[in-house]
Amino acid sequence: MGATAIATATTRYSFTAQFMRGAAMFARRAHEIEESAPEIISEEMQSEHTACVIGAVTQATATLEAEISEVSMHGPGHHLGSNGIDAAARDFLLPLAEIIDREQTLRRYDLVLHLLRKPALDKGAQPYQHAGLLVRLRNELIHYKSQWGPQMDQQKLFSQLKALRFDKPFFKSSQTNFFPHQCLTASLASWSVTTGIEFIDAFYRSLAIASPLIAHSAYLTVPPARRPR
Q1: Residue 1 domain-assigned?
Q2: pLDDT for 93-114, tens place per residue?
Q3: Predicted model pTM
Q4: CA-CA distance, 195 to 200, in Å (whole number)?
Q5: CA distance 68 to 64
Q6: What is the tally of structural domains in the chain?
Q7: Residue 90: inside a domain
Q8: Which of 25, 32, 60, 119 could form a disulfide with 192 if both were Cys (CB 3.0 to 4.6 A apart)?
Q9: Residue 75, in any domain of the structure
Q10: Is residue 6 part of a domain?
Q11: In this structure, which long-range contacts are made by residues 53-56, counting pairs with CB atoms below 8 Å and at least 24 apart in sequence?
């Protein structure tokens, strides 16, 4: 018998939408727990709540990092198929991808727009300011250093997070440190998702290309952030 030819196909997986959809799932679950009856809130549920909020923050930030890496390597419009890729921009950015990747998260977006001579994002406005806060929060969580309350409260990051004025769940004591206890709320999780989406959408508006998250919008809906009345 002769050898049988086997056809193979090379595929490439993108984590951009998966990360953000995961962040939205975590945010919705955190809201569900906060809306539960007080008598059923257990220590295990509170632990799950914290894990969900952290998951939303980290995956929303991972979305930002994943997407700019793909743009640098595969070109603007990479998510639209071969007919939607800006091939000239891809060929221009690819030799610079490793250099771009060494920069901080938002700086990578700035560099890509600058190199392609596209309109810059306004660093002093939203969603840029909130996106920067999101990245710093993720870094603080991933590289968490346990400190006493007064030491934590002196950090500028936590002052900025307090200024968001999100409502805290009833099972979070006001006597605990703001970070991480009172800070990690379902509203913060929702804010992380919407911040990530709005930043990526703004970036793609500058590129004049449809955002890769549009096709997943039905899965990215989260309850609105709550603030005390």
Answers
A1: no
A2: 999 999 999 999 999 999 999 9
A3: 0.90
A4: 9
A5: 6
A6: 1
A7: yes
A8: 60
A9: yes
A10: no
A11: 53/26, 53/27, 53/184, 53/185, 53/186, 53/188, 53/189, 54/141, 54/184, 55/22, 55/23, 55/26, 56/23, 56/24, 56/26, 56/27, 56/30, 56/188, 56/189, 56/190, 56/192, 56/193
